Amino acid sequence: MKINRIPYLVGLALSLSLLFCFPSRVLAQPAPRAESILLWPGGAPGAVGDTDLDKPDLTLYPAHGPNVTKTAVVICPGGGYAHLAIGHEGHDVARWFNSIGVSAFVLKYRLGMRYHYPAQLQDVQRALRYVRAHSSDWGVDPQRIGVMGFSAGGHLASTAGTHFDSGDSNSSDAIDRQSSRPDFMILIYPVITLTDEYTHQGSKHYLLGENPDPALVELLSNEKQVTKDTPPTFLIHADDDTTVPPQNSILFYLALKKAGVRAEMHIFRHGGHGFGLAPRDAVLGAWPGLLRNWLLDSGLMRCTVFPLEVRGSERVDTGATPSNHEPRERCPQGRLLGSATIPQRRCMNERECGTGFQPPQTNRAWKNPSPGGPASCPVVVMSAWGKSGGRRLCRGVAHACSRTDLSQPALAVPQTSKPCNSGYPSA
To answer: Which helix (H) or strand (E) holds 132?
Structure first.
């Protein structure tokens, strides 16, 4: 029997063209699926059924790779306590944390159509206890476990940070013996108050139901529950957020400052509500970098140290960390770090600019890049992608003078903004 080979050859040609024209799509391997665990395998307290909505769970994103830290965060997606925006306010955020070496755990908590308070608080407390009890499994420090929340998830996260306990030492459950206090909070356009004109009424309704007890409303207006033991907090909001007005973050920030709790807040001019990581907005999308800087400054991430080699009058960034140098777990801002082999180094916080930080390039030498600086002082240049009139900028010239007394502050770090063609190395 004679076989018509033309269709076969045409099909083969098309297949090969797809293979070579779109290799990444044809050959790419799917990312491994993150593991999820039930917070209460035997059933959650107060469960009213046996459906997926009755089973709070935690999706695990432990960090891997050379930049892994000992820090972890439990993420509470938003959704007005009525649904969960678990994609852009959950899994996407967890993957971003992994990219900077932080382990992340996305919480699916119970919702207001079937559950009211305290079910949601029980879920986030159980998640924090679970991560703390299993911290050694992922190389996490049990004293570096924070909570993050978006919108109504921000209310839940702030509730965890203002309503916590040290655990039940007599419990037969090793998880319940752990503290539920988060070590830090990250609140992104959070619902905070339930008693003020700025209250998000939908979140209040789904959390507490109709006609809630005024005492309970007061208890869960978290700006009124801040104490000196409330964890350090990072806040982000948009000024034009009409769903959850920025006064929610402002009220919480003022309460933190009154209680003497370390806090940082950024309010962007535009953004509205529910923007997540804002990957398509060059301005608003800078907030994850601000968070990364805050984590660095708080000692929750490994500091980046660029060793310098002095070659005559030139100061050269070698672009490599000495093999005998154990990365510091804390990066004290404005202080020098040293070792027997390379005493002249500066512990640098990375300043975000435009689309991201660019470390100094390997083996790039600079002659006198900082006029007016001490002649014997090596200079570290932090360069970043940024634009001003179409020109890239080099930012952050830091003097890194050698000191023997590491308890004393180093020289101030002047932040500059000079075009790359003005004597500073191009990024």
So the answer is: helix 119-133
